[in-house]
Amino acid sequence: MAYSKEIYERALNEINKRRTDAEISAEKRKTELYKECPDIQYIDLQLAQTGYKIISSYGLSPDDVEKTIANIKKENDTLKAEKRKILRAMKVPEDYLDIHYTCSKCNDTGFYEIRDEETGISHGTKLCSCHIELLKKLAAEQMAAQTPLELSTFEDFDLSFYKDDKESFEQMKYIFETCVSYSRNFGLDSPNLLFYGRTGLGKTHLSLAIASEVIKKGYNVVYGSVNRFFAKIETEKFGRNNDTYTLDLLCDADLLILDDLGMEFSTSFTNSVLYTILDTRICKNLPTIISSNLSFDELKDKYHESVVSRIIGTFESLEFLGKDVRQSSDRR
Ligand SMILES: [Zn+2]
Question: Is there a single domain that holds both residue 171 and residue 279?
Fold first, then answer.
């Protein structure tokens, strides 16, 4: 998918920093170890001269070259064995002096070369998966920065608000526990959830609480009101660049939370966008949470059948019950 220039730059800076940090810390380990054990430094110096020794053997007869190279190899093997022995005696791991990159596939360059396995010929470079993950994470973080996640936690969800009515209380207790266990056990195979019921019953509060827990687990979560997303998607689509930035972000997020479905003005454009988002995510098997003030019948009236069937067929629905009064100003 396409990311903004800023996200690309930040990702590349972060990857470059990972590489530099890995190299600096390897260099630091080496300096310290050499100080502690000059023998290791001596061995490394000998090993570093291998290329020079081989070049010096040119001009000899083919038989002598072969013998010289075999000797160099034998010497090197002895040196390496000696080095391993010293490291073991010092209780230092064998790979202690290697550069420990965060990603061993691209050695923290963000790109890797695609080579033909047989011929070794390069077919160009590709974005490494670590780079793609980072781009996704940064884009989701940027989006989350616009969301007041810290306002809603499971700890400050007050179940006593529902206790006047036994049925509401039991149902809300069940929903609360379902949400806690959902965020605790979250994975990319988690189910889709539909929160529905009147305003003021805690749907936004519990979605935000799930979002903040899932983000803490390292997943990228995109959260926002349907209204706001549709306005952005529309501006991008009909803008100069025919951009699909927000739509891609919504389709790709590890967890997408669409708040307040049904508050937006329904048009064929919103229906087709909603269908695209739901269908793409269902095909990719990525979880989505939708909250709506509309009942099932109202959803059916408002959206195309294709959209409604996607929701009814693949979402686990949870009906929020209680008095039609807001728990607090930040609860919807
Ligand atoms: Zn990588």
Answer: yes
Would you say residue 7 has pLDDT above 90?
A: no
Unique residue bearing structure tokens 């010096």: 56
94 with 150, same domain: the answer is: no
Going from the Cα of 13 to the center of ligand 1, the distance in angstroms, rounded, reads 14
As given in the structure block, the two tokens for residue 33 are 């170890």
Q: How do residues 189-243 score in pLDDT, each as one tens digit?
A: 999 999 999 888 999 999 999 998 888 887 888 888 898 899 989 988 887 777 7
Identify whether residues 222 and 169 lie together within a single domain: yes
Q: Which residues contact 113 (CB under 8 A, 6 or more apart)?
A: 122, 124, 125, 126
Q: Are residues 151 and 92 in the same domain?
A: no
Helices marked H in the chain: 5-36, 38-48, 50-56, 62-89, 129-144, 166-184, 203-216, 226-237, 245-252, 268-284, 296-302, 305-314
Q: Are residues 62 and 184 in the same domain?
A: no
CB neighbours (10 Å) of residue 327?
17
Torsion 163-166-168-173 (CA) sign? positive
Looking at residue 1, its pLDDT comes to 58
Nearest to 290 by CA among 318, 269, 267: 318
Answer yes or no: do 204 and 313 share one domain: yes
**173 and 295 housed in the same domain:** yes
For residue 30, being part of any structural domain is answered with yes
Domain region containing 96: 5-101
Distance 102 CA to ligand 1 centre (A): 8
**Structural domain total, the chain:** 2
Question: In angstroms, what is the span from residue 271 Cα to ligand 1's centroid?
Answer: 38
pTM confidence score = 0.66
**How remote is the CA of residue 103 from the centroid of ligand 1, in Å?**
5
> Phi, psi (5° rounding) for residue 140?
-70, -35
- Kindly give the distance from the C-alpha atom of residue 2 to the centroid of ligand 1, in angstroms, as a whole number: 19
